[in-house]
Amino acid sequence: MESSGEYDVDLAVIGSGGAAMAAGITARKAGRSVVLIERGTLGGTCVNVGCVPSKTLLAAAGHRHAALTNPFAGAPTSASRVDLGALVAQKDELIHRLREHKYAEVAEAWDFPVMAGEARFTDGEVLTVDGKPLRARAYVIASGSQPSVAGISGVEDVEYLTSTTAMDLDALPESLVVVGGGYVGMEQAQLFAHLGAKVTIVGRLAPKAEDELRDVMAEVFSEDGITVIEHRALSVRTTDDGQVMVTAADGSEVTAQRLLVATGRRSETDAMNLAGAGVETDERGFIRIDAHQRTSNPRVFAAGDVAGTPQFVYVAAASGRVAASNALDETPDGAQGSVDYTGMPAVTFTRPQLASAGLTEHQAIEQGYSCACRTLSLEDVPRALVNRDTRGAIKVIADALTGRVLGVHAVADGAGEIMLAATYAIKSGMTVDDLADTWAPYLTTSESLRLAAGLFRGDMPTSCCA
User: Fold this and answer.
1) What angle do CA 292, 294, 296 make, to 5 degrees?
2) Got the DSSP string for 32-93?
3) Which of 27, 344, 392, 430 could form a disulfide with 425 if both were Cys (CB 3.0 to 4.6 A apart)?
């Protein structure tokens, strides 16, 4: 590690996930010295316990479910009993490979070390790693977040799973109750249902989705055999026969072999002595930052989940780049960079996928837009027809005065693939006419974006590609 005058290093980054790696690379691009500090496993949430493991297991479950629900009678398929241990082993091999290739080898290529140890501030200027002082010109906290089980009476007295521990099961539970109907709860519920478990969700399904798309997902989950109790879970307890019972706010009760809690995440920064460093946190423990990722201590910045930003790895990376760039900025005016969230996409990797980019209808109205919306059923999308799966819809939200696209929301097989084009359209200020007049390849799911934009010109039916 290079010396930097009175400092040991220009930038010290706590964490080694997406935000931390982006910060480290940004610092090295600027010719600065940087060190990452990791108390656990290299790679952070996404590669180890989040995106990668859940999506590869969802892909496996999806293949099985597709075989069981094959709509093509002339091409028969079958699916046998699941070997969850084998799937988890395959998942672990992928994680190990990505951790080495995308994290360890990248750190080595950019020439910044990853120190193992517990980071703790002694004051607002000095950090210790396992008790050894480390003085940096600036600091970026990018330590991520952990699953939270707060707010459910009795939860600490039962054996429960989280989205992290569920990924390490070696045997499929016969039944599972999932508390929480957000994107994590939906993915986990469908994952285990498609593998063969009897699943119940307690909580509002897809609470942030457009109403039209929530209705579609409710029908999908019903077809999958997933029971949804759309009320908040109040309490849990273990029954006399060893099952877990969840009581919902409407008084309904559900029992299952296992409980999975997916009600949100929290930061875990107690060991860092943030108060001693003059770094403020909110009531949920997330670090307070300004628009430039700076904390209440001008030498300390925060990025990714720990700062309460949207919990996507691409947001973490973007905020890590901004935090490092601003932390190393020595201009008198201070940091100027910020993350632009315009058109930010999101994907729930259910089958079909639930995806969005930009504003919801409610958000557009709240921001003062005169809102115009159109919704296209997948029954009018040629790709869905040839796939024999018309479950879904795409909704386009526009400024009624200018026609500018404000948001795109979809439920479809491959809905997430539409959102890159949707984000480009929103960020570049395209109108619905621009979208309707832009080339779209026939027999693709992405064509639905052009077709939906065409509805703003009238609701009469059109022929293929017309």
Assistant:
1) 140
2) --EEEEESS-TTHHHHHTSHHHHHHHHHHHHHHHHHHT---TTS--------HHHHHHHHHH
3) 430
Q: How far apart are CA 406 and CA 344, in angstroms?
A: 11
Q: Are 119 and 128 in contact (CB under 8 A)?
A: yes
Residues 6+ apart with CB under 8 A from 413: 351, 352, 353, 384, 387, 389, 392, 445
Which of 295, 307, 382, 310 minimizes the C-alpha distance to 347? 310
Q: How close are the terminal C-alpha atoms of the chain, in Å?
A: 62
CA 272 to chain centre: 25
Task: Write the DSSP symbol of residue 402.
Answer: T
Q: Are 10 and 138 in contact (CB under 8 A)?
A: yes
Strands (E) across 131-217 are located at: 132-141, 146-147, 175-179, 198-202
Name the band, by pLDDT with cuts 50, 70 and 90, for residue 333.
low
Q: What is the pLDDT of residues 125-175, one digit of tens each?
A: 999 999 999 999 999 999 999 999 989 999 999 999 999 999 999 999 999
Which helix or strand (DSSP H or E) is residue 108 part of?
helix 105-110
Q: Show the tokens assigned to 216.
A: 């579609």
DSSP 153: B
Per-residue tokens: 335: 């940091």
* CA gap 466, 453 in Å, rounded: 13
Of 265, 269, 267, 241, nearest to 255 (Cα)? 241
pLDDT tens per residue across span 388-416 = 999 999 999 999 999 999 999 999 999 99
Give CA 259 to chain center in angstroms.
22
Task: Report the C-alpha gap between 458 and 466 in whole angstroms.
Answer: 13
CA-wise closest residue to 450 among 437, 460, 459, 461 = 437
Burial 92-118 (b: 16+ CB within 10 A, else e): eeebeeebeebbeeebeeeebebbeee
Half-sphere exposure (Cβ direction) of 119: Cα atoms closer than 13 Å: 29
Name the nearest CA neighbour of 216 among 421, 412, 464, 76.
Answer: 412
Q: What is the dihedral of CA 312, 316, 319, 324, to 10 degrees?
A: -170
Q: What 3-state DSSP class applies to 10?
A: strand
Instruction: Report how far apart, in Å, the C-alpha atoms of 185 and of each of 15, 177, 196, 466 are.
Output: 26, 10, 17, 40
Contacts (Cβ under 8 Å, ≥6 apart) of 72: 388
Q: Provide the strand spans (E) within 95-174.
A: 114-116, 119-121, 126-129, 132-141, 146-147
Per DSSP, the three-state class of 178 is strand
299: nearest Cα among 337, 273, 268, 330: 330
